[in-house]
């Protein structure tokens, strides 16, 4: 097979596999988002919840300190994310909690300690009507 055709076959295969790579959102049950924090991930990475009060319980299974913040996403590159709620800092092998009142929309989940967010410690929270 000519090299050009081989590249085409690889690209088509990747395009067909890409839609299956995403994680299905996990619903926050009973108004509580339960997450695990580790270097450098938030699990689950995609969460759905109903509008209103959301309790956040985060377990730090990592070796470093972590937190879990809920942010309004940037409107453009010049505007920073704005934290609207979250948890205090969790020491390794500890659990922390917090709460936030949310309106429908899409929010960003992130660890705001040092550069953890840049290293992949972020997620997405979709809030729907009650």
UniProtKB/TrEMBL annotation:
InterPro entries: Cupredoxin (IPR008972), SoxE-like_C (IPR049544). Pfam families: SoxE. Residues 101-128 form the Sulfocyanin-like C-terminal domain. This is Sulfocyanin-like C-terminal domain-containing protein.
């Amino acid at each position: 097979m000519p090299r050009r055709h081989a590249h085409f076959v690889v690209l088509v295969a990747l395009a067909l596999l890409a839609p299956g790579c995403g994680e299905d959102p996990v619903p926050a049950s009973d108004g509580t988002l339960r997450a695990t924090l580790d270097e450098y991930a938030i699990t689950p990475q995609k969460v759905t919840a109903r509008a209103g009060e959301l309790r956040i319980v985060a377990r730090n299974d990592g070796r470093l300190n972590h937190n879990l913040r809920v942010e309004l996403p940037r409107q453009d590159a010049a505007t920073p994310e704005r934290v609207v709620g979250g948890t205090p800092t969790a020491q390794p092998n500890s659990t922390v909690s917090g709460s936030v009142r949310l309106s429908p929309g899409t929010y960003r989940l992130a660890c705001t300690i040092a550069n953890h967010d840049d290293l992949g410690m972020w997620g997405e929270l979709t809030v729907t009507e009650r």
